[in-house]
Amino acid sequence: MDPVSVLGVIAAIIQLIETTANIISYVNDIKDAPAKRAQVARHTSSLLALLTDLRYRVEEANSTSDPWFEALRGLGVQEGPLVQLKDQMEQLAEKLDRKG
Fold first, then answer.
1. What are the counts of helices (DSSP H) followed by strands (DSSP E) for the chain?
2. Helices in 30-80 by DSSP H: which ranges?
3. What does the alpha-carbon distance between residue 89 and residue 51 come to, in Å, rounded to a whole number?
């Protein structure tokens, strides 16, 4: 994977981290549904940890000869999993922001 592609994947991951952190903040402000709030907070916190780990793993990789770069390439494609996840998380953040 070329350096430009790596930077694009890192940027997408950083955007997802920011959106996920916003969702956690919104969920913590919801007072009417404590069980659902806790469930969403747990899931988004787990996602945040995974995304953070992925970001640092991408940044620390020493070369494109690292075998997992091939799988990573598929995550960063246009309309790929990272873009779809970002879109879904942004929609959720928007819904939660309106309710907050």
1. 4, 0
2. 34-60, 68-75
3. 13
Cα gap 1→69, rounded to integer Å? 7
Per domain, the residue ranges of the chain are 3-99
3-state helix, strand, coil in the chain (%, to 5): 80, 0, 20
Phi and psi torsions of 31, nearest 5°: -110, -15
Reduced to 3 states (helix: H, G, I; strand: E, B; else coil), residue 13 is helix
pLDDT digits 0-9 by tens, 11-39: 888 889 998 888 888 777 776 667 777 88
pTM to 2 decimal places: 0.70
**3-class DSSP assignment, residue 16:** helix
Residue of 50, 29, 32, 49 whose CA lies nearest to 97: 29
Both structure tokens of 42: 């747990």
